[in-house]
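Recall that a protein's primary structure is simply its ordered list of amino acids. Everything else, from secondary elements to tertiary packing, is in principle encoded there. The following example makes that idea concrete.
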Amino acid sequence: MEYWTHSSLQRSVVPLCLLLFLCISTTTFLKAKAFNLTTLTFSDSYSPLFSEFNIRRSPDDKTVHLLLNRFSGSGIISSDYYNYGFFSASIKMPSKYTAGIVVAFYTSNVDTFEKNHDELDIEFLGNVQGKAWRFQTNVYGNGSVSRGREERYRMWFDPSKDSHRYGILWSPRKVIFYVDKIPIREVVRNAAMRGDYPSKPMSVYATIWDASSWATNGGKKKVDYRYQPFIAEFKDLVLEGCIVDPIDQIPSSNCTDQIATLLAKDYSSITSEGRKSMRWFRERYMYYSYCYDNIRYPVPPPECVIISSERERFKSSGGLRSNIRLGATRRRHHLRRITKRQSKTAVAASGLEALI
């Protein structure tokens, strides 16, 4: 039996308070009401895009695994084109060594509009084992790839351990990117953007591929096929929008009503709590934004909203200042001070064991 002295109890209180503070602070910003979504089977939503031999579907057709090996990557495409919508999937990243790999979930119409295509991207950049995963979001309109609107972030969790839901809201008014129902980025349509705002019907894609030339540390780390196959899992597939013919010159009359329905959904606007969550994420995990890249854009693009608390963290190149550390690093540093025994004892005593 272990007896606790007054001094030992005092020593346990500080780590417990610290742990509770960190947990409460984090969960306060991560609270989000669950979206009411209808999920689809693979057959009802997607078709193979390339390398069907590297695509594995579950027996119930609700989960699809995309493989990358030394022969090829793989990809899927939505069976229909959409004129605005909300597109989402629960995704689990490949594990172990994944340098040089890109897993992407995005919308595009490059197959139909080769020289003036639109695109909305969530791209996960492979990591060196033990390092935080990185990912980026992009917005392209009317072939404006030379005027890319990229932002890059680090994860506050390991996306290879469990599935997490990622979503893209694309409406006539705005684009919102989501991670686990947390809005991480909002691009509000500005008239000065003109064709740079995506407005033509798009398909939805999911792919995994070898991007050794740039994805990890600027291409210094390559895909290591000793760890193949690399498997990305997609499930809980959601495609909500107006289905259209991409080359039809007369928009479907049904889209007026369906777009109105889309705009009324809870994921089409950000609540005050959602804005707190978005600020929490961006101030701790965003490490590049084109809006603060004064070298690339001496005058910020018209849709940029300059936020002083973000602005002060970035150099003129849009990257973090050298003395800025991301929130995950600071939190891990504090958590290391709590011994394993103290953590387990304190958390079990307070009924918060699930948060370890």
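Residues 1-15, 17-28, 328-356 have pLDDT under 50 and may be disordered. The longest strand covers residues 230-244.
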